[in-house]
Amino acid sequence: MSEKSLLFVLDAQMPFVRHPDMPGSAEEAQLFTVLSDTWLPLLRSCTGLETEGIPFRFALSISPTLCEMLDDPLLQSRYVEHLDKSIEFGISELERHAGSPEEREAIKHHLDRFQANRRDFTETYERNILAKIDYFALRGHIEILATTATSVFMPLYADIPEALNAQIETGLTTYRRHFSSTPSGFWLPAMAWFPGCEHLLRSYGFQYTFVDAHALLFADPIPGTGVYSPVSCENGFAVFARDTVSCRKITGGGDASGYPHSVNYLDMDRDIGFELDEGTLSTLFDVHLGRRQTGFRYWGRTLSETEGALVYRIDRAFAQAESDAADFVEHAAAVLSRASEIREGEPVSMVCALPLHFLGQSWQEGVSWLETTLRKVCADPRVSLELPLSCVGDRHSLVRAEPRFSSWHPGGYAEEVLNSSNDWIYRFVRKATLRMIDLAERFPDDTGLKERALNMAARELLLAQSMHWPLMMNETDRCEYAKKRLEESVRAFTVVYESLGSNFISTEWLTTTEKRDNLFPDINYRVFSRKK
């Protein structure tokens, strides 16, 4: 480990939004937006860095749910159709803005990006971007972190260890199918830590995880290293804390600060999918299925109420990204230098943990900023890029501390996933969880149709446990969809539970449900069994 290390940790999470019988849904379009704005630009950046011999490194948590969607042939085909429609629409937009040279430049920029995405997705990666991620992982550029199967808020199930075991084991099974190596680190969904978490994760062979800063700043005892060095729990499990202040310097923390708010960047809130009429958008998507982001945005950030918006200038935006990358490297070097002085020359590290979708979806130039930052750090002798595993080192030399319950949600704890808008769901999900444990105990050796039904029940329960649904219930425009999806999963589980009680299950219903929710094909319902 270098004396002054910078660790980038990117978290990629998405709800399961596969709808075989409803092509063109707004929810599936969100997956396509993630692919277009974040994943494919990020892989292009990684390829460029590797080609130039730049030793870039970052850690990546990619949820098993997202892995399954990225590997799904139906969604892959629909994404190609989406790209084709976007390219066709971009060409028509160039014609529509024939008399506006500046807007045509912005349109051409987006059109070029869609064409590059199609070429990379279909030809370079042959629709399999997970293989490319695995390629970079095998070469030491990316350290893949394990996480739960469906982004469950773990503290809410801390009293039901079988539920957490099932989430972790199903997730690991998915990683073994998609990637070549078993992860050494574990990403807590939403960085949600609870006391005793270290014993659970250590029992699966994981060596470290990440928490938000206040988990260590309120730890017992409070570590003298602050957040600039991992700590060790009593059982030797290592815990990193993210530097919340440095992360807010990037994201802005919900206010008008942060790099993305520069007037030179693309205004992500002004997408033509919400502005143009139904007829103009008809070749791109059906407005009756819901307005959505299209990727065609023509305006920079608003300067003031009187000056209005400026047409997006690509040259200014990427010059700004270059400047912001240089600013962040200077910030990181200064912070690590000061931390090293306080620790009298002991190794220090800064963890910048970000939701991956922020780069690209919330901040169009975010991927370019990250690439430039990685370049600059690799060329700067004051700071080095490291992967988390290399910073754990000798655990006996780490300061001992027990982190406190916390999360990286804006409130810092659990109010986003447990409040008056969503608390009603837990009595149903927790009851289903206890019933699933009972089923696994009652039917330990079943095969054939009954085993298929039990696996289906386990799959639907994992989906119901996802924190995406309660989070979406806090949003007016997504609340009904979240309720519908949660109710579908709980209802499907209940059908299996009651059918096993009556010793009859509809083969037709089971087959239809399996085709709809086709994730985790290797799932084994016995993961819900109590540990003997």
Could you state the order of secondary-structure elements as H and E? EHEHHHHEHHEHEEHHHEHEHEHHHHH
Helix content: 40-55%
The CATH topology of the largest domain turns out to be: 7-stranded beta/alpha barrel
Q: Compute the number of helices.
A: 18
Q: What's the overall geometry?
A: globular
State the CATH class of the largest domain: Alpha Beta
The fraction of residues in strands falls at: 5-15%
CATH architecture of the largest domain: Alpha-Beta Barrel
CATH superfamily of the largest domain, by name, is Glycoside hydrolase 38, N terminal domain
Number of domains: 2
The structural class is alpha/beta
| Assembly level | single chain
Unreliable spans are none
Mean pLDDT: 94
What's the main sheet like?
5 strands, parallel
Terminal CA distance reads 40 Å
Description:
It is built from 18 helices and 9 strands. It has 532 residues and is α/β, with parallel strands linked by helices. It folds into 2 domains: 4-146 and 250-385, 7-stranded beta/alpha barrel (Alpha-Beta Barrel); 425-528, Families 57/38 glycoside transferase, middle domain (immunoglobulin/albumin-binding domain-like). The strands form 2 sheets. Strands 1, 2, 3, 7 and 8 form a 5-stranded parallel beta sheet that branches. A 4-stranded mixed beta sheet has the order 4-6-5-9. Helix 1 links the parallel strand 1 and strand 2. Helix 3 packs antiparallel against helix 4 (101-124), helix 14 packs parallel to helix 17 and helix 15 packs across helix 18. The protein is globular and about 70 Å long. It starts with a strand and ends in a 16-residue tail after the last helix.
